[in-house]
Amino acid sequence: MGSKVPAATNTLRLLRFLATRRGPVTAASIATALELPRSSVYHLLAVMTAEGFVTHLPEERLYGLGIAAFELSSAWVRQDPMARLGAPLLHALVDTVGESAHLALLHGRDVVYVVEERAPGRPSLVTEVGVRIPAHLTASGRSMLADLAPAQVRALYPNRAAFSSRRTDRDERTGITSPSRLRAELERTRVRGWAVEEGDVTPDFASVAVAAHDHRGLPVAGLAVTFLSHRIDEERRRGLVVHLRRTADALAARLYGVPRSD
């Protein structure tokens, strides 16, 4: 039986199609895949772009998921299961490494902290549950941004104005204050294999982070360990990353039934 609300059905089909792509696509490819008239596809895309569910890249004539779609897609894990399933894993991680840790989700250009576990005897942090911090400043945010398609990062950070919210007064010459600086940092993150933050959130503190991924390899959460910068050398930081990766893989297995395939 056909849908009694074809526009709603086609909207959901279009969203599902975009969600399965590794990057933005043309309107023609959408029309072909969904077997819809191009005029109908353009109409749907216009409405969904206006509402933030689709991002239009006019220079490339491509369409991809917008910020509202990312917010919607993360709502299930943000509201309850992510915290319930992630908290025991984070507790075990902190017991093992002896440093504080948190789990955060990407929400637009911010990260939202959903689990925070402080190690005994360690200073309190700003990463309390519910706190929002600009993603580009944090290790957990950078770990997720590094695994997004370049077009999605461009949609989130189109110009310097997107970097106006900052928590520290770091030197303008060294901070991430433009799309080009962010691209360079995300490339370093991909090459290194994990994200790093040194004093961007809180002076004298540093963090290392990795992303947890869904069954398609897309980032769904960032897991980070935070510590006083002078206490942890590079070798020890690499060891923390090993434990973070195990925790991220365990979280992905709990959420999606299968670990990430590398």
From TrEMBL:
Residues 68-257 form the IclR-ED domain. Keywords: DNA-binding, Transcription, Transcription regulation. GO terms for molecular function: DNA binding; DNA-binding transcription factor activity. InterPro entries: GAF-like_dom_sf, HTH_MetabolicPath_Reg, Tscrpt_reg_IclR_C, Tscrpt_reg_IclR_N, WH-like_DNA-bd_sf, WH_DNA-bd_sf. GO terms for biological process: negative regulation of DNA-templated transcription. Residues 5-67 form the HTH iclR-type domain. This is IclR family transcriptional regulator. It comes from Tersicoccus phoenicis. The lineage of its organism: Bacteria, Bacillati, Actinomycetota, Actinomycetes, Micrococcales.
